[in-house]
Specification:
nine-stranded mixed β-sheet; 31% helix; single chain; globular; alpha/beta; Rossmann fold
């Protein structure tokens, strides 16, 4: 995740002044169209094949990717989101990173954004990602998105946790594995490929997708899917004995989008659809009277 803007609100007054999101693109964060396409493909395929498991995100920022992932839950499944939010960092290096990049991050803003699209919050673990295995059962997740600390030691531990928590054919996604300001993520990612049996399925400009489970069938299905799209270039690259797919998605068209309960102001003709397993929600009135901002929305829950 790139460095955060200092404009993210912290006080109740600032929260109340922040408009409620009418569409996913209103939520601040970095979740590019190509990765939305791939999240949709992997998660929809798991649903279609009846693959069991829960969802997990390590590092949430203001909830953009979490909101998207939340649309692919089946009844009885859990979605866990782990982030420090306003808590102190566990060590000096992580504290410096938090102060530099996410000093204004708040859990309240995340919750308000998420509740603009979903009726219930995910299971929130406000703690360092290093302790996630105490909150999520081993062999219980089918999809894990890692976008927490950029420090090598932390990412290395997050990958090890993902390997423990994923079901046999589960998918792990790592953000910022190739960004120049995040060399620790790159080192931990490719180190895992070299030493843990993590198999690289594909990469985009910002994210790495891999599995410790079934590779050939998933990779071939993904290649066939991409071959049918004119908006995303792809090619093969041999990595650690596996024909990993490289993807360029600069022109990628976004897939079906989660629907905000405040979506009445969506432009006429705009394609706003829920993920395939979610019913269309009735758009609410976007004319927000005084006292109906994010702070007020959350205040009704406290």
């Amino acid at each position: 995740m790139p460095e955060a803007s200092a404009s993210v609100p912290t006080s109740a007054q600032e929260l109340d002044e922040l408009p409620l999101p009418t569409r996913l693109s209103d939520v601040k964060g970095w979740f590019h169209p190509a990765d939305q396409v791939l999240f949709d493909w992997f998660l929809s395929r798991q649903l279609r094949l009846g693959e069991p498991g829960d969802l997990l995100e390590l590092g949430a920022y203001l909830g953009k990717s979490a909101i998207f992932m939340g649309g692919y839950l089946r009844p009885g499944e859990a979605f866990t989101v782990c982030d420090l939010f306003d808590s102190p960092a566990p060590d000096d290096a992580n504290s410096k990173e938090m102060n530099r990049s996410y000093a204004t991050l708040t859990r309240r803003a995340f919750e308000a954004n998420y509740l603009s699209f979903h009726d219930e919050l995910p299971d929130i673990v406000q703690a360092p990602s290093s302790g996630i295995t105490a909150h999520v059962r081993a062999d219980s997740c089918r999809f894990v998105h890692i976008d927490a600390s950029h420090l090598y030691e932390h990412v290395h531990a997050d990958i090890a946790a993902a390997q423990r928590l994923l079901v046999r054919d589960g998918v792990v996604v790592l953000d910022d594995f190739r960004a120049e300001h995040c060399p620790g993520v790159a080192a931990a990612t490719w180190g895992a490929v070299a030493t843990t049996g993590l198999k690289p399925l594909c990469i985009t400009a910002t994210k790495f997708y891999g599995t410790w489970g079934a590779y050939d069938e998933t990779r071939e299905a993904l290649g066939a899917f991409l071959a049918g799209r004119g908006d995303m270039w792809h090619g093969a690259e041999e990595v650690a004995g596996h024909p990993m797919i490289r993807i360029s998605g600069a022109k990628a068209e976004v897939p079906a989008q989660p629907v905000s309960r405040h979506a009445s102001a969506v432009r006429p003709g705009a394609a706003v659809q829920p993920p395939p397993n979610k019913p269309v929600q009735r758009a609410g009135d976007n004319r927000r009277p005084k006292g109906r901002g994010l702070a007020s929305l959350l205040g009704r829950r406290s």
